[in-house]
Amino acid sequence: MRRLWLVFAQTITIAFGLYLVLATVRPDWLQRLTPARRIDTGPAPVLQAASTMKPAGASFRDAAGRAMPSVVNIFSSKSRPKQQSASKDEQLRRFFGDGSPERQSASLGSGVIVSPDGYILTNNHVVDDADDIEVGLADGRTVPAKIVGTDPETDLAVIRIAERKLPVMLLGHPEHARVGDVVLAIGNPFGVGQTVTMGIISAVGRNNLHINHFENFIQTDAAINFGNSGGALVDTSGNLLGINSAIYSQTGGSVGIGFAIPVTTAKAVLDEIVAHGQVTRGWIGIESQDITPELANSFGLDRKSGAIIAGVVRGGPADKAGMLPGDILSGVDGKQVTSTTDMLNLIAQLTPGGKTRMTVIRKNRESTVDVTVGKRPRIAD
Question: Do 61-276 and 282-375 agree at the fold level?
Fold first, then answer.
């Protein structure tokens, strides 16, 4: 009996030693000998938030929800694609999307419903010279549209659809907008479908970009890309601040520098087009340039700002009123002129055929002249 116990103990010791050697040298052999554990195929235990839980932090889904139904997709086609003139700065781009290579006459943009009667604001370059226009509504319907009127000088256009009881976006107050305000850009970039991006207002009153003749852009870093043209820039309440119009880009994609036309300008254009079919502006027939400190010193001028008349159209209203090149236009209808942008906007607001008093400085002497306002010639689309 004692001998059997000794054999048993030695066997156990040798087996344990072999196990230790295998566990150290070849553990994979032991895994083959170990029976596989059964894998539970049931649902994994997870934790889920309550369905009534509000999103953490700031959310603009209410603003987006109010604004998105009023933003539409615009599909326009042309039998003969219009040749685009070379831009003074190729990095400033108007961003409607071209169609497929097989149909280069197709364009894609966006628009904003601003009236329950079917009036839609968009960019002129989206519908310019179009033979056929279709509008894709947020509810999935696609309906035909007609051009009511265009204004190439602000790159705005008004189109209309026959549908009624449409979702309408409320107009906001861009004059109250400040740098740093959060804004949302809504449109149809690259044709992927309605998209909302967020950013802030980077600047207001941007001009001298040589995109449009009349410029007063809202600048934003909200992502804007091809197909966003004519889309909405809205505030955090979902109200319309501007119509997206152009981007600054070296590649054609968004780099965070986008420009929108303020809704105050768009509303004025809308009213003129609906009432008269086109926008009528005042004109006096002068060319001007800003007075800079360098220019003031060179000509011995007392003023360091304003608009100096560089040329006068012969036989035009300014010529008939006695204005001369070199004169400084300092006031229009009692309002001060601080730049050529001020001058253009103030004169454009005058009623053609009416008389207005303008303040002119000649050889540092101030005088007033009465000018009969003419009608601004319409530029070619």
Answer: no
